[in-house]
Structure formats: C-alpha cells, structure tokens
Amino acid sequence: MKQGLFVLLAMLLLSACSLLLPVDVGAQKTYVLNSEPLLSKPAKLYSQVLLVTQPRLDPLMNNNQMVYLDGQHQLGYFTENRWAAKPNQLFFSVLVETLQKSTGFRAVVGAPYSGLSDQRLDILNFSIVQDFTRNPSVLTVKMDLQFSDVKQQRLLAAKSIQASVATSANTPQAGVDAANLASVDCLKQIVAFVEAQQKFS
User: Fold this and answer.
1) What is the C-alpha separation between 96 and 57, in angstroms, rounded?
2) What is the reported pTM?
3) φ and ψ at 160, to 5 degrees?
4) Which residues of the chain are modeled with pLDDT < 70?
C-alpha cells in the first residue's frame, strides 16, 4: 500500500514539473536581407571619409519580428516567421558594403568607428511592412536619410525614400523575396543621394 502511494505521489510530482516546461510551438523560420545592387565604381574619386551609422528602426519595429498590415488596416506580427536579426542590422551590413563598392569616397566606414571622418549618413525611421490590404500583398521598405558635415556639425541634406514591390504570393516567404528587391531599390536611391551630396561638398 505504501509503495503504491509512493508511486502515485511521484507521478503527480512529475506531472506538476512538466507544467513548468516551455511548450514547443514549432520551429520558427528566419530570413535575411542580403541582396546588393549591381552598381559600378564612379570614375571620379574623392578624399573624404564617409561614416555610416546603423539605421534606426521605426518604433513599430523594435525587434526582429516581421510586420504586416491586415485587411482591417491593423498592424500585426507573424508568429512563426522572423528576421534573423533586427532588420535595420541586416540592412546596415549590406548598406555599408554597397557604399564601399559604389561611391567615390576614399573610405566608407560603419559605426562604431573611432577614427576621423568628413561626412556622415544617418538613416531614421527604417521600416519593412507587408501590406495585405492589397491583393497581391505589397511589401514596402521606407526610411529617412540625413547627410551631414562632421567637422562643421551641419546637416547638408535630408530626404525620405521608399520602395514597394508586389509579392508573388500572400505569404511571409514571398514578402521576404519582395523585401530584398525593395531593399535593392532603396540602396540604389541611397547611392544616388550620397553621390549628389558628394559632388557639392
């Protein structure tokens, strides 16, 4: 009798402990932004060093969740699909590499950077949203650009840019493909913006 009670007590304890374990909701899928535009190096080179700071996320994108706009015009987040890191971090690495290859600066460096620089590119309100109020859904990447003179501590130019691409299907995976295409478009716009300021500096 005592042995039976001991077994029953042990089973109850194990059941109680199992309630404290996390529930497996299935493996999440993660995605990256890694597409670069095909741009050539300009013939004219300059002596300036460009410092690029990491883009600042729009407040609605404060983590690596993938954001969508539903049919009721309400923002939501995919639960089983995420970016591999915060999207501004993914875009930042591609941005610096693109500017290094496609602009005439003596050097393009990404923050944090302790050396001397001449100009600085800041990106604010970076966002990626898949819009399901349209069919097929449309993926939009948007951001605000600021180009400053570091030595004079003066804003030289500012511009808002965006790129929208219709998805091939109303799925998160198709949204990622469209996000990479839209990011490439934005990178081209950033290069054109920076080169225009470079000519006047």
Assistant:
1) 17
2) 0.84
3) -100, 135
4) 1-26, 200-201
